[in-house]
Design a protein that fits this description.
single chain, alpha/beta, Rossmann fold, 2 domains, four-stranded mixed β-sheet, globular, binds 5-S-methyl-1-O-phosphono-5-thio-D-ribulose
Length: about 350
């Protein structure tokens, strides 16, 4: 059994590569793609070979190093060239702010490079920063697990949506890190994984990842969650985030908003689990979050067979926004913000939040 991971850099900055587990093939095939060209990494992000907000931030950061290998090393051209490549990579997927956050961080880091650095030194300096992003993400995942685990009571039913685990981050995940921490702590609980239409990240990735880790996981179609709650089999909902606005409004995989409405109706606590890199405090509320729309075939012909009439008009937003008032709390690497608001989030993130690409 291979180790589960999302991305892994191998080698130095000049000749190294980015290994990426192709998530579109899971769970039937575990294939690692060795990538050395930035446009291949960008394609992998667009086609969801790598996906999940923190993981695409990491992949984007490493892709920028691959892109920078081809930049002319004169001061006039390097910095605008790097910024242009960062912007091109950032446009791969619009909703998860982690991509813009990681790229912005590398561009800002490069702007503080001492004068006279060689190409190799400059690339190595960027690579070191990308590795730091990975190390920090790993640590943040671990902390979210520690802060969230006490919410899982012995015997609880815990429902999740999409995939927010090892495959979606550089560490244990966000919502799934909470489950992993509780499991390691010996707390018995049952995970319920929403299938997550249309691309089945819950069925293909979460169910696979949790089962492999020895966690008791049951798969259900998205439309079954309300009945499960009515039957009192769900004690807690844990989801991730692609972008959280200053007031706590949270964009996450399509279907998350519906789940929050159901949880509210049934009195089930609904927690978002996300690191500080998933916040966008430049947005006052969720109305400004760009929502990615994906192609119709993902719904009409998702896995190689038409399941709808051809040419039928389709609406396929990949994410929705859950209003803060439906969120019981947000678990970050710093702790839990209960009943999130502009004031409580600003206080919680004081000093750590960094903007993305401007
Ligand atoms: O389209 P995807 O698979 O990238 O969507 C992923 C999600 O919505 C996750 O819940 C989110 O990115 C958080 S991952 C820790």
């Amino acid at each position: 059994m291979t180790t589960v991971f999302s991305t892994r850099w191998v080698g130095d900055a000049l000749s190294g590569r980015l290994d990426l587990l192709d998530q579109t093939l899971l769970p039937s095939e575990e294939r690692v793609l060795p990538l050395t060209i930035a446009s291949d990494v960008r394609e992998a992000i667009v086609s969801l070979r790598v996906r999940g907000a923190p993981a695409i931030g990491v992949a984007g950061a490493y892709a920028l190093i691959l892109a920078a290998r081809d930049l002319p090393l004169d001061d006039e051209a390097w910095s605008p060239g790097l910024a242009q490549q960062a912007d091109w990579l950032n446009r791969a997927r619009p909703t998860a702010v982690n991509l813009s956050w990681a790229l912005g961080r590398l561009v800002r880091h490069d702007s503080t490079c001492p004068v006279g650095f060689t190409r190799t030194q400059r690339l190595e300096r960027l690579l070191a920063e990308a590795h730091t992003i990975v190390a920090e993400d790993r640590a943040m995942c671990a902390s979210m697990g520690v802060h969230g685990a006490p919410l899982i009571a012995s015997g609880a039913g815990v429902l999740t949506h999409c995939n927010t685990g090892v495959l979606a981050t550089a560490g244990d995940g966000t919502a799934l890190a909470v489950m992993y921490a509780a499991h390691r702590g010996g707390v018995p609980f049952r995970a319920y994984a929403d299938e997550t239409r249309p691309l089945l990240q819950g069925a293909r990735l979460t169910a696979w990842e949790l089962q492999r880790a020895g966690i008791d996981v049951t798969l259900l179609c998205d439309g079954m969650a309300a009945m499960l709650m009515k039957q009192k089999r769900v004690d807690l909902v844990l989801v991730g985030a692609d972008r959280i606005a200053a007031n706590g409004d949270t964009a996450n995989k399509i279907g998350t908003y519906g789940l929050a409405v159901m949880a509210h109706y049934h009195g089930v606590p609904f927690y978002v689990v996300a690191p500080s890199s998933s916040f966008d405090l430049a947005l006052a509320d969720g109305s400004g979050i760009p929502i990615e729309e994906r192609k119709a075939e993902e719904i009409t012909c998702g896995f190689g067979r038409y399941t709808a009439p051809q040419n039928i008009p389709v609406y396929n937003p990949a994410f929705d926004v859950t209003p803060a008032e439906l969120i019981t709390g947000i678990i970050t690497e710093r702790g839990i913000v209960e009943r999130p608001s502009v004031a409580s989030i600003a206080k919680h993130l004081g000093g750590v939040w960094q903007p993305g690409l401007s």
